[in-house]
Amino acid sequence: MPAPPKWSFAYYTRKQQRALWIILAVLVTVFGWSMWPRQELETLPTDDEFWLAVEKLRANEETEEITEAESSGNYYSNSSPSSFYFDPNTVSQQQLEDLGLSERQAKAWVKYRSSGAKFKKPEDIARLRILRPEDVNRLKPLVRISGREYANSDDQADAVEASLRSASESFRFDPNTVTQDELERLGLNVGQARAWIRYRSSGATFGKPEDIARLRVLDAEDVARLQPLVDIEGQPQIADLQASEDGRPQTYGGTTGIGEGYTVNENISLDINAATPEDWQRLRGIGPYWAGRIIKFRDALGGFVSIDQIADTYGFPDSTFQAIRPSLRLEQSVSLLPINLASEDELKHHPYLKARQARAIVAYREQHGPFADANALKDVRLLSEADRERLVPYLSFE
């Protein structure tokens, strides 16, 4: 009888056949166990793992934002930048855009600074990843950090500034109607001239020559040089200096941009949480534009808890705020935001919360349950102490 072929099971001895059966049984068991339906127990991540995930999400968002901006061609700086001195710790977003940065770069600069970062020397602006090397090289000579000396640090920038002033013309002008081109002819650079026009378009006006000193973009030399040239058409008499026979303040006869029909009245007292746009326009320096901006900010907050919050209105001139502050009072209470019930969308629309902070609050709430009180917010690492101090008066922990 011939031997069975090698591929036949009968070719192997009984001992070998038993070993093959055992191996086959083990394989079937393992495969069947892996395919058996079951519910896996998922362990909750630790706090460290949770916040690492949040930070990773934040980094991914920033990367996606930069990628999207670069692809749209509006991430890097503008083609016609202005040149003027600036303090990187206080410069505004609009001034950064005037210096040639794009809107996204300027926003990223302000955001970086609001996180608590400080610039101690001009070279520190290179830490901003959104600036290209050519941006750093162009802006570094213009940096003027408060409290530092700059004796011979940028002769080239000083020469440019000096040449502008030496080539300037001298003629009388009305600061309320002067054009950007005329301001440049008077020796101001493009950034200063634009800031002047922007300040005026916000509703502010100049009532006397000394008022041009309110423009922060002008240094003492500019003010001293331009003030004698100011000629305000129909310049009104200031009520503080002239009074009627019965001792009551007189009214302004000219147009001052402080609200139609405004009467100088030192006894104005405005409840900042109840005032209407018309009420705001009774104050010096407040026109329809700023009245609308202040009320929009107030509605987004749910009301003001401090008079000083008026100064937080985006772009609001500090000089105007200081002038109207004595006329302001605070009476009505604010609308509270229920932090344990509010959705992520509701939280992120509050002016004192960013989208990623709102997301972190909701995620932490889902992980650890409702917030018992204000102290519990310390565990949300994306909220700084300053963030918590501003936010807590607007929160309800019920």
What summary fits the major beta sheet? 2 strands, parallel
Q: Tell me which oligomeric state these chains represent.
A: single chain
- The SS-based structural class is mainly alpha
Order of helices and strands: HHHHHHHHHEHHHEEHHHE
Rg calc:
33 Å
Q: How do the strands of the widest beta sheet line up side by side?
A: 1-2
Q: Categorize the overall geometry.
A: elongated
Describe the protein in words.
By secondary structure, the protein is mainly α. It is elongated and about 125 Å long. The protein has helices spanning 14-35, 47-72, 93-98, 103-114, 133-139, 155-166, 180-185, 190-201, 220-226, 277-280, 288-301, 318-324, 344-348, 355-368, 385-391; strands spanning 270-271, 328-329, 337-338, 395-396.
Question: What can be said about this structure in brief?
Answer:
Helix content is 40%, strand content 2%. The chain has 398 residues and is mainly α.
Secondary structure elements and their pairing?
Layout: H1 14-35, H2 47-72, H3 93-98, H4 103-114, H5 133-139, H6 155-166, H7 180-185, H8 190-201, H9 220-226, E1 270-271, H10 277-280, H11 288-301, H12 318-324, E2 328-329, E3 337-338, H13 344-348, H14 355-368, H15 385-391, E4 395-396
Parallel strand pairs: 1-2, 3-4
Keywords:
single chain, 398 residues, mainly alpha, two-stranded parallel ribbon, 2% strand, elongated
